[in-house]
Amino acid sequence: MGGWEWAILVLIALLLIGGSRLAGIGRNAGKAVRAFKEETAALKADGSTAPGAAREPFRSEAIAVPDMDDSEIVDAELIDTDPDLAAPPDSSSAASGDSSDVPDKA
């Protein structure tokens, strides 16, 4: 933003807020910025670092996995517990238009 844009914003702020309140807001903002700078300077002079900066970098180690022979692999049999799902739909009833399995849309 250029100089003219800032001047227009300050003029609008003066009209909306008023001169005395705008001066108080500016004074409080200046105090807050000054306090923030003092605290950050004190932290830097103290030698404190960010909480995560003092830790060692994370190192991952490989985990040894034993080799598996094919003889150790056991074939499992799939057991279906629902008899309705085990049998495929009867193709003769579907072709004939038998709708006994379809509920009525009443």
Short structural description:
With 106 residues, the chain is mostly helical. 50% of the residues lie in helices and 0% in strands.
Mean pLDDT: 73
Kindly report how far apart the N and C termini lie: 69 Å
Order of helices and strands: HHHH
Number of helices: 4
Low-confidence stretches: none
Helix content: 40-55%
Structural class: mainly alpha
Query: Compute the gyration radius: what is it?
Result: 39 Å
Q: How many extended strands?
A: 0
Q: Shape, please?
A: elongated
Oligomer state of the chains in this structure: single chain
Main beta sheet = none
Percentage of residues in DSSP E strands: under 5%
Describe this structure in words.
This protein has a domain at 18-46. The chain starts with a helix and ends in a 10-residue tail after the last helix. The chain is elongated. 50% of the residues lie in helices and 0% in strands. It is mostly helical and 106 residues long. The protein is built from four helices and no strands.
Key attributes of the depicted protein:
0% strand, 4 helices, elongated, mainly alpha, 106 residues
